[in-house]
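Weekly structure sync, notes
Attendees: PL, DS, HV (note-taker this week)

Item 1: hypoxia-inducible factor-proline dioxygenase
DS walked through the input record. Source organism listed as Acipenser ruthenus. Sequence as pasted into the shared doc:
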Amino acid sequence: MKCYGICVKDGFLGDELGSQVLREVEVLNQSGQFRNGQLVSQRTIPSRNIRGDQIVWVEGGELGCESIRSLMGRIDEVIMYSAMNGRLGDCMINGRTKAMVACYPGNGTGYVRHVDNPNGDGRCITCIYYLNKNWDVKVHGGLLQIFPESRTVVANIEPIFDRLLIFWSDRRNPHEVKPAYAARYAITVWYFDAKERAEAKEKYRLGFLSWFRNGLLATGIGVISYVQSDVGCEAAYGFFILGGMCVSFGSTSYIGNLFAVRRTMLLSLPAVLLNGLVVSSAALFWLCAVALYIGRLEVEIVREGEEGCEDCRNDEKDRGKKNK
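Item 1 (cont.): predicted structure, written out as tokens:
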């Protein structure tokens, strides 16, 4: 890993245990539990145009997933042993994701060139275990190509049965899955670096606070404009709307990101829902307050307009009397 950023181990579990894992994965597929793979980042391009796999997340304690749990335990041993012996550099492993069981259904779909962790979400190591017996890339496709950073070579990884692939999850290893023309199975787990994961959680938290602060600032300027400016109502109206937009965008973005990274960041659904409830409640309270101020300003603007019209009518009457 230190030299090349990639490590391949064939015959990782052995034929017996590897075959048991394969049977469990096939049962999961036949039971209809797989769903279309999603993207971690928010994109306008439909996910199916980027990745064509179907996935299910497995924790290891589910009924019928005993062999998958054994696989996860074996990978844990490899990663922790490597970390303790300094084979993983400065990474301080403090957890991993659930296992992502993936199937490319064999209809010519793949996964375009991408990076697992382009934005520092905490994942540092990617481990992929392949389950495809008698696989021939010339016939079945599905080749994994890795393009190591700062190297001219390309690593071509055939997804053959009982092969374990380990590589850095960040921008050092862009990779893609070529179109597969037969059912292609793999199980992936990602391991977290303690420092980067803590920074990622803080980044998501501060993201909302930044937008909320901007909303507070805009609203405060609106209040000052209303009190001190000669064009107070119109200026305050604009700043109140800007404040509401900041709070709305910040809360929506925060909640969307929470759900997008829930699995990769090991966030429990109750924790995500609780965070979402707190943020949405704060945003709703703020928006209601802003709406009340805007409503009050609209009344005053209309009133000022009516008073101005009344003054104009009085001036016209006075001019008419003088002309007579």
